[in-house]
Amino acid sequence: MPPSPSPTRFAYLGPEGTFAEAALSRAITAPEGRRDPQPSVAAALAAVRSGDADAALVPLENSVEGSVPATMDGLVDGEPLVITREVFLDVAFVLAVRPGTVLADVGSVASHPHALAQTGRRLTELLPGISPLPTTSTAAAAAAVAAGEVDAAVCAAIAASRYGLDVLADDVADHPGAVTRFVLVSRPGRLPDPTGNDKTSLVAVVGDRTGALLELLQEFAVRGISLTRIESRPTRQRLGVYSFSLDCEGHVADPRVGEALAALHRLCDDVRFLGSYPRADGRENRPVRQESSDAAFADADVWLARLRSGEV
Ligand SMILES: O=C(O)C(=O)C[C@]1(C(=O)O)C=C[C@@H](O)C=C1
Description:
By secondary structure, the chain is an alpha/beta fold. Among the domains are: 94-169, Periplasmic binding protein-like II (D-Maltodextrin-Binding Protein, domain 2); 190-312, Alpha-Beta Plaits. It is built from 9 helices and 15 strands. The strands form 3 sheets. Strands 1, 2, 3, 4, 5 and 11 form a 6-stranded mixed sheet that branches. Helix 7 runs antiparallel to helix 8 (255-267). The protein is elongated and about 85 Å long.
Protein backbone atom coordinates (compact mmCIF):
# COMPACT_ATOMS: atom_id res chain seq x y z
CA MET A 1 0.00 0.00 0.00
CA PRO A 2 1.43 3.45 -0.86
CA PRO A 3 2.27 5.55 2.21
CA SER A 4 -0.49 7.98 3.15
CA PRO A 5 0.44 11.60 2.39
CA SER A 6 2.12 13.22 5.38
CA PRO A 7 -0.24 15.61 7.19
CA THR A 8 0.35 19.31 6.81
CA ARG A 9 2.92 20.64 9.23
CA PHE A 10 2.06 24.03 10.73
CA ALA A 11 4.69 26.25 12.31
CA TYR A 12 3.54 29.07 14.60
CA LEU A 13 4.95 31.61 17.00
CA GLY A 14 5.25 29.56 20.19
CA PRO A 15 5.62 28.23 22.76
CA GLU A 16 2.22 26.74 23.58
CA GLY A 17 -0.28 29.31 24.81
CA THR A 18 0.43 32.19 22.42
CA PHE A 19 -2.27 34.15 20.68
CA ALA A 20 -0.74 32.75 17.47
CA GLU A 21 -1.59 29.24 18.65
CA ALA A 22 -5.17 30.31 19.35
CA ALA A 23 -5.36 31.85 15.88
CA LEU A 24 -3.99 28.63 14.34
CA SER A 25 -6.69 26.61 16.09
CA ARG A 26 -9.24 28.95 14.62
CA ALA A 27 -7.75 28.68 11.11
CA ILE A 28 -7.24 24.91 11.14
CA THR A 29 -10.13 23.14 12.75
CA ALA A 30 -9.36 19.67 11.33
CA PRO A 31 -7.48 17.50 13.85
CA GLU A 32 -4.90 16.20 11.35
CA GLY A 33 -1.62 18.00 10.84
CA ARG A 34 1.35 18.59 13.08
CA ARG A 35 1.77 21.85 14.99
CA ASP A 36 5.33 23.01 15.58
CA PRO A 37 5.80 25.95 17.97
CA GLN A 38 8.75 28.12 16.91
CA PRO A 39 10.77 30.53 19.07
CA SER A 40 10.19 33.56 16.80
CA VAL A 41 8.32 34.80 13.75
CA ALA A 42 11.59 34.57 11.79
CA ALA A 43 12.00 30.91 12.80
CA ALA A 44 8.39 30.10 11.83
CA LEU A 45 8.90 31.66 8.38
CA ALA A 46 12.30 29.97 8.00
CA ALA A 47 10.67 26.59 8.73
CA VAL A 48 8.35 27.12 5.76
CA ARG A 49 11.14 28.32 3.47
CA SER A 50 13.30 25.30 4.33
CA GLY A 51 10.43 22.84 3.84
CA ASP A 52 10.37 21.79 7.52
CA ALA A 53 6.82 23.17 7.68
CA ASP A 54 4.13 23.51 5.03
CA ALA A 55 2.62 26.66 6.46
CA ALA A 56 3.23 29.18 9.26
CA LEU A 57 0.73 31.17 11.28
CA VAL A 58 2.21 34.55 12.25
CA PRO A 59 0.85 37.90 13.54
CA LEU A 60 0.70 40.67 10.94
CA GLU A 61 -0.97 43.66 12.59
CA ASN A 62 -2.86 44.72 15.68
CA SER A 63 -5.73 47.21 15.88
CA VAL A 64 -3.97 49.17 18.67
CA GLU A 65 -0.25 48.75 18.05
CA GLY A 66 -0.15 48.50 14.25
CA SER A 67 1.98 46.21 12.16
CA VAL A 68 4.34 43.52 13.46
CA PRO A 69 7.73 44.46 11.95
CA ALA A 70 9.16 40.92 12.28
CA THR A 71 6.40 39.61 10.03
CA MET A 72 6.35 42.56 7.61
CA ASP A 73 10.09 42.29 7.04
CA GLY A 74 10.18 38.48 7.22
CA LEU A 75 7.73 38.21 4.33
CA VAL A 76 9.92 40.42 2.17
CA ASP A 77 13.42 39.20 3.03
CA GLY A 78 14.31 35.79 1.59
CA GLU A 79 12.57 33.35 -0.72
CA PRO A 80 9.00 34.28 -1.71
CA LEU A 81 6.12 33.29 0.57
CA VAL A 82 2.41 33.87 0.03
CA ILE A 83 -0.50 34.44 2.37
CA THR A 84 -3.26 31.87 1.90
CA ARG A 85 -5.56 32.88 4.78
CA GLU A 86 -6.11 35.68 7.25
CA VAL A 87 -7.45 35.14 10.77
CA PHE A 88 -8.71 37.79 13.20
CA LEU A 89 -8.47 37.19 16.93
CA ASP A 90 -9.70 39.30 19.86
CA VAL A 91 -6.78 39.78 22.21
CA ALA A 92 -7.24 40.27 25.97
CA PHE A 93 -4.34 40.26 28.42
CA VAL A 94 -3.99 39.14 32.04
CA LEU A 95 -1.19 39.72 34.54
CA ALA A 96 -0.04 36.23 35.57
CA VAL A 97 2.20 35.21 38.49
CA ARG A 98 3.35 32.07 40.28
CA PRO A 99 0.72 30.86 42.79
CA GLY A 100 1.00 32.70 46.07
CA THR A 101 2.62 35.83 44.61
CA VAL A 102 0.89 39.11 45.53
CA LEU A 103 1.22 42.41 43.70
CA ALA A 104 3.65 43.78 46.29
CA ASP A 105 6.05 40.85 45.57
CA VAL A 106 6.27 41.58 41.84
CA GLY A 107 9.67 43.08 40.99
CA SER A 108 9.77 42.26 37.28
CA VAL A 109 7.28 41.82 34.45
CA ALA A 110 7.79 40.52 30.91
CA SER A 111 5.90 40.05 27.65
CA HIS A 112 6.04 40.39 23.89
CA PRO A 113 6.76 44.04 22.93
CA HIS A 114 3.37 44.30 21.17
CA ALA A 115 1.59 43.14 24.32
CA LEU A 116 3.62 45.53 26.49
CA ALA A 117 2.75 48.40 24.17
CA GLN A 118 -0.96 47.57 24.54
CA THR A 119 -0.82 47.44 28.35
CA GLY A 120 1.75 50.14 29.23
CA ARG A 121 -0.62 52.47 31.12
CA ARG A 122 -2.23 49.71 33.19
CA LEU A 123 1.17 48.22 34.03
CA THR A 124 2.41 51.59 35.26
CA GLU A 125 -0.65 51.85 37.53
CA LEU A 126 -0.28 48.30 38.83
CA LEU A 127 3.52 48.11 39.01
CA PRO A 128 4.89 51.67 39.27
CA GLY A 129 8.61 52.00 38.66
CA ILE A 130 9.06 48.59 37.02
CA SER A 131 10.53 48.54 33.50
CA PRO A 132 8.95 45.64 31.57
CA LEU A 133 11.22 43.12 29.87
CA PRO A 134 10.65 42.02 26.27
CA THR A 135 10.19 38.33 25.41
CA THR A 136 9.70 36.59 22.07
CA SER A 137 6.00 35.98 22.77
CA THR A 138 3.41 36.37 25.52
CA ALA A 139 3.53 32.62 26.26
CA ALA A 140 7.35 32.75 26.47
CA ALA A 141 6.86 35.32 29.24
CA ALA A 142 4.42 32.99 31.04
CA ALA A 143 6.94 30.14 30.73
CA ALA A 144 9.66 32.43 32.14
CA VAL A 145 7.45 33.19 35.17
CA ALA A 146 6.83 29.46 35.74
CA ALA A 147 10.61 28.91 35.53
CA GLY A 148 11.18 31.60 38.16
CA GLU A 149 13.06 33.90 35.77
CA VAL A 150 10.61 36.81 36.12
CA ASP A 151 7.83 37.53 38.58
CA ALA A 152 4.93 38.39 36.26
CA ALA A 153 3.84 37.97 32.65
CA VAL A 154 1.38 39.82 30.46
CA CYS A 155 -0.20 36.99 28.50
CA ALA A 156 -3.41 35.31 27.40
CA ALA A 157 -5.54 33.72 30.15
CA ILE A 158 -4.95 30.40 28.41
CA ALA A 159 -1.16 30.79 28.79
CA ALA A 160 -1.58 31.45 32.53
CA SER A 161 -3.43 28.16 32.98
CA ARG A 162 -1.08 26.30 30.58
CA TYR A 163 1.93 27.26 32.77
CA GLY A 164 0.16 26.81 36.14
CA LEU A 165 0.07 30.55 36.94
CA ASP A 166 -2.44 32.61 38.90
CA VAL A 167 -4.11 35.65 37.40
CA LEU A 168 -3.42 38.76 39.52
CA ALA A 169 -5.31 41.15 37.24
CA ASP A 170 -7.74 40.51 34.38
CA ASP A 171 -8.09 42.70 31.33
CA VAL A 172 -4.93 44.77 31.65
CA ALA A 173 -5.26 46.23 28.13
CA ASP A 174 -5.19 50.04 27.83
CA HIS A 175 -7.67 49.82 24.94
CA PRO A 176 -10.19 47.01 25.43
CA GLY A 177 -11.45 45.28 22.29
CA ALA A 178 -8.08 44.95 20.52
CA VAL A 179 -7.92 42.61 17.56
CA THR A 180 -4.81 41.01 16.02
CA ARG A 181 -4.75 39.94 12.41
CA PHE A 182 -2.75 36.78 11.76
CA VAL A 183 -1.85 35.27 8.40
CA LEU A 184 -1.18 31.72 7.28
CA VAL A 185 1.73 31.70 4.83
CA SER A 186 3.07 28.98 2.53
CA ARG A 187 5.61 28.57 -0.22
CA PRO A 188 4.17 29.78 -3.54
CA GLY A 189 1.95 27.23 -5.26
CA ARG A 190 -1.64 27.04 -6.38
CA LEU A 191 -3.43 30.15 -5.16
CA PRO A 192 -6.66 29.94 -3.17
CA ASP A 193 -9.59 30.16 -5.64
CA PRO A 194 -11.34 33.53 -5.90
CA THR A 195 -14.40 33.70 -3.64
CA GLY A 196 -15.78 37.06 -4.75
CA ASN A 197 -14.71 38.56 -1.40
CA ASP A 198 -10.91 38.39 -1.40
CA LYS A 199 -7.90 40.48 -0.52
CA THR A 200 -4.54 40.73 -2.29
CA SER A 201 -1.33 41.73 -0.51
CA LEU A 202 1.90 43.03 -1.97
CA VAL A 203 4.97 45.10 -1.24
CA ALA A 204 6.11 47.63 -3.83
CA VAL A 205 9.43 49.49 -3.83
CA VAL A 206 8.82 52.84 -5.48
CA GLY A 207 11.59 54.86 -7.08
CA ASP A 208 12.97 57.98 -5.41
CA ARG A 209 11.13 60.40 -7.70
CA THR A 210 8.38 63.01 -7.49
CA GLY A 211 4.89 61.56 -7.55
CA ALA A 212 5.98 57.90 -7.32
CA LEU A 213 3.48 57.06 -4.55
CA LEU A 214 0.68 58.91 -6.33
CA GLU A 215 1.41 56.91 -9.51
CA LEU A 216 1.18 53.67 -7.54
CA LEU A 217 -2.12 54.67 -5.91
CA GLN A 218 -3.59 55.81 -9.22
CA GLU A 219 -3.28 52.30 -10.66
CA PHE A 220 -5.72 51.09 -8.01
CA ALA A 221 -7.99 54.14 -8.05
CA VAL A 222 -8.57 54.20 -11.82
CA ARG A 223 -9.67 50.56 -11.70
CA GLY A 224 -12.03 51.13 -8.76
CA ILE A 225 -9.97 48.96 -6.38
CA SER A 226 -10.13 49.88 -2.68
CA LEU A 227 -7.08 49.55 -0.49
CA THR A 228 -7.67 48.12 2.99
CA ARG A 229 -4.16 48.84 4.35
CA ILE A 230 -1.09 50.76 3.23
CA GLU A 231 2.06 51.56 5.16
CA SER A 232 5.63 52.42 4.36
CA ARG A 233 8.63 50.39 5.50
CA PRO A 234 12.26 51.39 5.16
CA THR A 235 14.08 49.38 2.49
CA ARG A 236 17.16 49.55 4.74
CA GLN A 237 19.29 50.70 1.77
CA ARG A 238 19.38 54.38 2.72
CA LEU A 239 17.12 57.03 4.19
CA GLY A 240 14.54 58.16 1.64
CA VAL A 241 13.96 54.85 -0.18
CA TYR A 242 10.78 53.13 0.97
CA SER A 243 8.66 50.16 0.17
CA PHE A 244 4.89 50.28 0.50
CA SER A 245 3.18 47.28 1.98
CA LEU A 246 -0.50 47.19 1.06
CA ASP A 247 -3.64 45.08 0.93
CA CYS A 248 -6.32 45.73 -1.67
CA GLU A 249 -9.75 44.30 -2.27
CA GLY A 250 -10.01 41.59 -4.92
CA HIS A 251 -8.08 38.56 -6.20
CA VAL A 252 -5.16 38.58 -8.63
CA ALA A 253 -7.39 36.47 -10.90
CA ASP A 254 -9.82 39.42 -11.16
CA PRO A 255 -8.95 41.32 -14.38
CA ARG A 256 -8.88 44.73 -12.66
CA VAL A 257 -6.54 43.51 -9.90
CA GLY A 258 -4.31 41.63 -12.36
CA GLU A 259 -4.04 44.74 -14.53
CA ALA A 260 -3.19 46.94 -11.54
CA LEU A 261 -0.42 44.54 -10.49
CA ALA A 262 0.94 44.43 -14.05
CA ALA A 263 1.00 48.25 -14.07
CA LEU A 264 2.89 48.26 -10.76
CA HIS A 265 5.39 45.83 -12.27
CA ARG A 266 6.06 48.42 -15.01
CA LEU A 267 6.14 51.41 -12.65
CA CYS A 268 7.93 50.23 -9.53
CA ASP A 269 11.52 49.25 -8.88
CA ASP A 270 10.29 45.98 -7.38
CA VAL A 271 6.96 44.32 -6.56
CA ARG A 272 6.62 41.33 -4.29
CA PHE A 273 3.27 39.57 -4.57
CA LEU A 274 2.19 38.28 -1.14
CA GLY A 275 -0.93 36.39 -2.13
CA SER A 276 -4.68 36.55 -2.77
CA TYR A 277 -6.90 34.96 -0.12
CA PRO A 278 -10.44 35.09 1.25
CA ARG A 279 -11.31 38.20 3.23
CA ALA A 280 -12.03 37.22 6.85
CA ASP A 281 -12.69 40.48 8.71
CA GLY A 282 -16.45 40.05 8.36
CA ARG A 283 -16.73 42.86 5.83
CA GLU A 284 -17.74 42.74 2.20
CA ASN A 285 -15.60 44.20 -0.58
CA ARG A 286 -17.06 47.37 -2.04
CA PRO A 287 -19.25 46.88 -5.10
CA VAL A 288 -17.16 47.10 -8.28
CA ARG A 289 -17.95 50.01 -10.57
CA GLN A 290 -19.57 48.92 -13.85
CA GLU A 291 -16.60 50.09 -15.94
CA SER A 292 -14.20 47.99 -13.78
CA SER A 293 -16.31 44.81 -13.76
CA ASP A 294 -15.09 41.51 -15.22
CA ALA A 295 -17.75 41.85 -17.95
CA ALA A 296 -16.43 45.30 -18.91
CA PHE A 297 -12.89 43.92 -19.18
CA ALA A 298 -14.09 40.95 -21.29
CA ASP A 299 -16.03 43.27 -23.57
CA ALA A 300 -13.00 45.56 -23.99
CA ASP A 301 -10.81 42.53 -24.83
CA VAL A 302 -13.21 41.47 -27.60
CA TRP A 303 -13.29 45.02 -28.96
CA LEU A 304 -9.48 45.25 -28.97
CA ALA A 305 -9.11 41.85 -30.67
CA ARG A 306 -11.46 43.05 -33.39
CA LEU A 307 -9.40 46.20 -33.93
CA ARG A 308 -6.19 44.19 -34.09
CA SER A 309 -7.64 41.82 -36.64
CA GLY A 310 -8.51 44.74 -38.91
CA GLU A 311 -12.27 44.79 -38.14
CA VAL A 312 -12.53 48.49 -37.41
O1 LIG B 1 2.97 36.64 21.78
C1 LIG B 1 1.93 36.16 21.32
O2 LIG B 1 1.12 35.49 21.97
C2 LIG B 1 1.64 36.41 19.91
O3 LIG B 1 0.89 35.66 19.29
C3 LIG B 1 2.23 37.67 19.28
C4 LIG B 1 1.39 38.92 19.43
C5 LIG B 1 1.90 40.04 18.42
O4 LIG B 1 2.88 39.87 17.72
O5 LIG B 1 1.23 41.09 18.38
C6 LIG B 1 -0.01 38.62 19.05
C7 LIG B 1 -1.06 39.21 19.63
C8 LIG B 1 -0.91 40.24 20.70
O6 LIG B 1 -1.11 41.50 20.06
C9 LIG B 1 0.45 40.22 21.30
C10 LIG B 1 1.47 39.52 20.76
